[in-house]
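Task 17 of the worksheet. Students: predict the tertiary structure of the chain below and write it out as structure tokens. Keep your answer in the requested format; marks are given for formatting as well as content.
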Amino acid sequence: MKFILLATALFGPVAHLAVAQVALLHIQVIEGEGAVNASGSHNARPLMVEVTDETGKPVEGASVSFHLPEDGPGGTFGNGLRTDVTVTDVRGRANLHSIVLNGTPGRLAIRIVASKEQARAGMVSFQYIAEPKSGAAPEKSSKHSPSFLHGPIKWVIIAALAGGAAAAGAVLAGKSGSGASNTPATTTSTISIGTPSLTVGKP
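Model answer:
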């Protein structure tokens, strides 16, 4: 009986200490949750997490691993891999700075796992890859009239062309009158620039 009591006195506290070392971990995203990133670029904001125990106390020295999906919206970390590992500081925080995103738009799921001794915790943080920007506006068809032929300038050009056509008609009519035939010549010129068209002729 004496030896049993002695063993209990010696090993009881040790057993209790071993149980106390196995604590629960909690992970919380402090920064970067829901960030929207440009397609094919680096992440716009760093991802920061905080690891605490079951009492809410920050856990220093916990290993935190970040995992990107194999396909779909994703990318690689600064090390060129889809997995990166860091360690929490005295505040229980770990930062992930660089993600090179691929060109697949949609919701990006980042799996996070924290571990310290026998305790582990996991969660998923979500960011987004935006749709790529559309290209330049298509060029206008060459069938359309130039922009300078619209508005007041268009009618100035039409009037100038109409005056020139009228003068040409008068010259042709004079030449025809000096010939053998006394039948007045009729010259009709049609000028069409876009819409509407203008017809100039001698009655």
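Marker's comment: The chain has a mean pLDDT of 73. The longest strand covers residues 106-116.
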